[in-house]
Write a structure and sequence with these properties.
Length: 640
């Protein structure tokens, strides 16, 4: 009996051991692979209200218009906003967040990403993308963390931090209630306030530096922001409000900046203007900006940590600000001229003085390539003066003329595109210059600035009509920007002398600024050395040209345009990188992890560890049988 009892215990022990091994195998086989997390820096800048470029910033966000719906020189209807931009600073190439509708753009402005919300305009924490925004850091976190003050003013909002629509108040235009760190914090909610009648709460706060905040935001109601009402109504609203802002105590006696921008456009840049005492006067730029550039500007001004890779990589709009010392800029009108070889044409160059600049600016001209001679009269400028620059050449061709202004160590310039014709064409004629960053296969990888150049041998009364993608014909008055997509530009010249219109010119301008979308490398595990990997890739503009793949930091191998590759890998965990390139030359790399296990005895191998388990079971049974036999023989010897 003792032998039988001992044998039973050994058998139970073996079964328990097998259960432990099976449990370990199942646990190790199902253990997920965890990628290292990236945690935002917790370092807090030294609190300081004084910024590099401004101490106070007020942001006004309007709705749903391209820049040339606004600026009158390119067909817009907003006379006050045009005058504001002419007096201070205008960005011609602000491509917002390049998404629609409203909500994702407001999130870009305050959270550094759209959180996957393109196509969605719902309320706070109402779906997956707004749920992600709900738990994410935002610009208020950075401002408060630096010891700065902030306040957001909402027209027609019924109460602080209101999270639903009400009358002319649209919650999707109030990004601050989309973040839990604000909406669930009573102290912070008290800073998201109704703007008051005629924005009286905002204007009263601007009456003193003790009530104004470092970071301020105003969302007009859906009529004043031009969402439900036309451009003229919104322009009149701003024409009444902004002069009061600029005349306030904070803007008259402090280092304050005002930004007026739009949440979104429709394929073209939006109007973005800076104004205020720290902003350069008469400054315009073709530098490419977007909503992340505003975050980058605020972060650069107060040395704040960035929120995402988007604002980290964005170009801050610091060129708009005077650093406190005297400065100046130059502009030229027209920006393009044409004439017959041996003749000449003029362009007027204007000086814009900022920061108390009062010196004389000496003007000189350059030509690239050489061949155009320029003379400016007068040869120097001061204050906000103008000079007429005359350009001539005897060699037909296309040139870039630069008027350079110098004062001591300061040097600024204005560019004029010059076309020299071999002979005078009959009647009016025109040409164009497209300026942007060239990619592959005739594509541009940046927005393109187009300058149209009219000519008529009969005199200066010549104009150019143009249209994009079979849209409405527009009278050309200033360089314009062509954004992402495949575009057809048509243009022709007409004159005031009764000549027949010029035959139409047609040219294509293809722009792809965005890298392909890439991801989904898998499957994650294999039980053979030869593995076939697949992934997802797309490019909505120029299309995918090719893929390349590599393992563990080795060289990339070309695999064509099909999202699939077969490679040989040794046992172990491998880092796989796939690089996609579109036809414009934009590239992106996606990374994934795969594991290969060909060991027949491994729990994650081809036989799921069954051979190992079988060996263990056989060994246990053999031990049991041996013990039972030994005990049996001993019992026989003990029997009389």
């Amino acid at each position: 009996m003792a032998a039988k009892e001992f044998g039973r215990r050994v058998l139970l022990t073996g079964v328990a051991l097998l259960a432990v091994l099976l449990s370990f195998s199942m646990a190790s086989g199902s253990q997920p692979t965890h990628l290292p997390s990236i945690e935002a820096s917790k370092a807090t800048p030294t609190p300081a209200a004084s910024g590099t470029y401004f101490d106070y910033v007020l942001i006004i966000v309007l709705e749903n218009h391209n820049i040339c719906d606004i600026v009158t020189t390119c067909g817009g209807a907003a006379t006050y906003m045009t005058s504001l931009a002419n007096a201070y600073g205008l960005a011609w190439q602000d491509t917002y967040c390049n998404v629609n509708p409203s909500l994702p753009n407001y999130l870009c402005l305050t959270g550094g990403t759209h959180f996957g919300c393109p196509g969605y305009d719902g309320g706070p924490n109402s779906n997956a993308c707004t749920g992600l925004a709900w738990t994410s850091p935002n610009i208020v976190d950075r401002v408060v963390g630096a010891g700065l003050t902030w306040k957001a003013y909402m027209e027609d909002m019924p109460s602080n931090c209101y999270s639903g629509d009400s009358g002319a108040y649209a919650v999707r235009h109030n990004p601050f209630v989309y973040y839990d760190s604000i909406a669930s914090n009573a102290t912070r909610c008290s800073r998201v306030v109704p703007a008051g009648s005629s924005d009286s709460v905002l204007l009263n706060d601007l009456g003193s530096t003790s009530t104004a905040s470092n970071y301020m935001w105003l969302t007009p109601n859906v009529c004043n922001d031009m969402h439900d009402c036309n451009v003229t109504v919104g322009d009149q609203y701003l024409g009444g409000l902004i002069p009061q802002i600029l005349a306030s105590n904070v803007f008259q006696n402090g280092r304050a900046a005002l930004l007026v921008t739009f949440d979104e456009g429709y394929g073209y840049p939006v109007y973005t203007a800076w104004a205020g005492p720290v902003v350069k006067r008469g400054f315009q730029t073709n530098v490419s900006y977007n909503h992340y550039s505003l975050l980058a500007t605020v972060e650069a001004n107060w040395n704040l940590p960035p929120l995402t890779a988007n604002d980290t990589a964005a170009t801050p709009m610091t060129e708009f600000f005077s650093t406190g010392g005297p400065d100046f800029s130059l502009s030229a009108s027209p920006a393009g001229i044409a004439f017959v070889a041996g003749q000449n044409r003029t362009s007027t160059v204007s000086l814009h003085s900022t920061g108390g600049f009062s010196g004389n600016v000496a003007l000189s001209t350059q030509s690239n390539p050489a061949g155009v001679t320029g003379t400016c009269t007068p040869p120097s400028l001061s204050g906000n003066g103008t000079s007429v620059c005359t350009f001539s050449s005897s060699t037909p061709g296309s040139y870039t003329a630069t008027v350079v202004g110098t004062n001591g160590t300061l040097s600024r310039s204005a560019t004029i595109y010059v076309t020299v014709l071999a002979q005078a064409p009959p009647g009016p004629s025109s040409s164009h210059v497209a300026q942007g960053t060239r990619g592959d296969a005739g594509w541009y990888v940046s927005d393109v600035t187009v300058t149209l150049i009219p000519f008529d041998s009969l005199g200066p009364a010549v104009w150019v009509q143009y249209r994009i993608d079979s849209g409405s014909w527009t009278n050309y008055s200033a360089p314009f920007t062509v954004g992402e997509g495949r575009h057809t530009l048509e243009y022709y010249a007409i004159d005031g002398y009764g000549s027949p219109p010029e035959a139409h010119h047609t040219t294509t301008i293809n722009v792809d600024r965005s890298p392909p979308a890439l991801g989904g490398i898998g499957p994650p595990s294999f039980v053979a050395s030869e593995v076939t990997l697949t992934w997802t890739g797309s490019d909505a503009v120029s299309g995918i040209a090719s893929y390349q793949i590599r393992a563990d930091g080795g060289p990339f191998d070309y695999v064509g345009a099909t999202p699939r590759a077969t490679i040989v890998l040794a046992d172990g965990t491998h880092t796989i990188e796939v690089r996609a390139m579109d036809f414009a030359g934009n590239t992106v790399i996606a990374t994934g992890t795969v594991r290969v296990d060909t060991n027949i005895f491994s729990p994650s191998g081809p036989f799921l560890g069954i051979p190992t388990y079988a060996i263990v079971v056989v060994a246990i049974l053999a031990v049991i049988v041996a013990i039972r036999r030994r005990r049996g023989k001993r019992a026989e010897r003990d029997d009389p």
